[in-house]
Amino acid sequence: MRRLLLFSVLLLLAVPMVNAVEVDVLLSERHRPHVEAVQAIQQGLRADDVRLFSGVENGDISEEVAQLQRIVERKPDLLIVVGEDALQAALQEDIRIPVLSVMSMTIRAKLQQRIPLTGIDLRPAPQMVADELSRLLAPGAMVLSYYNPEYSGDYVKEAAELFKKRGLLLAARAWPEGDIWTEMNNQMKGADCYWMQMEYKSVAPDTLRLLFALAKKGKTLVGLSEKYVRAGALLAWTPDVHQIGQQAAVMANRILAGAVAAGIPLEHPAHMRLSIRTPDSVVRGRE
């Protein structure tokens, strides 16, 4: 009788272990925004076991790949990749575990066809940009923007349609292979505004020097974050890392509840701080 009772107790204890929800997180613990985002995710995540694996986030994904191989062996219910290197490693390894990506500059809907992926696109929603520029620019104003079609093609296409509905023209062009400085300078002669895309070429030193020089001459510049406004851009949206983490936790819980990761559309940050440069050079932010 005592053995039967002990066996029954062991069975009851085994149930939660079998059904335990496991989430693995790959991040760079040296990168403060990654740590802040993960802390917010953990606060809202409905999981029994959350384990952190650290990469480097230096452009070399070998450390992230090594960590992913350990993660795959564990077979968690969800993998959260934080940052660019972690996402690229997951794509290279052709991960079959449901993946949620945050804090990456290159996540896009087409990647959902490669691995079971969803996540948060750090760029402001196109409608948010179109609405604000329609208030700041005169009707018929031309907005120039260079972009990589692979990374930003769908985003720019959606934005162009929204700009048109608001009486603005978005002149979006693929990055030239030759002299970016000369072409951009020539194109800006007929444009009223330049909208920076969240791409690596946008922040190349030569590109930035030209854009801020044009801003000093009176051209409207839409930057990538508040620091660009402080440097001379007219406006920019800055995502809140803590709120991105909270938003990611909601998406993660949907996946853990049974939703297919690749079936969840990518989201833009639900809350972003808009910073606008005023005539007295004071940067004022609002959400």
Automatic annotation (TrEMBL):
<feature type="signal peptide">
    <location>
        <begin position="1"/>
        <end position="20"/>
    </location>
</feature>
<protein>
    <recommendedName>
        <fullName>ABC transporter substrate-binding protein</fullName>
    </recommendedName>
</protein>
<keyword id="KW-0732">Signal</keyword>
<dbReference type="Pfam" id="PF04392">
    <property type="entry name" value="ABC_sub_bind"/>
</dbReference>
<dbReference type="InterPro" id="IPR007487">
    <property type="entry name" value="ABC_transpt-TYRBP-like"/>
</dbReference>
<dbReference type="InterPro" id="IPR028082">
    <property type="entry name" value="Peripla_BP_I"/>
</dbReference>
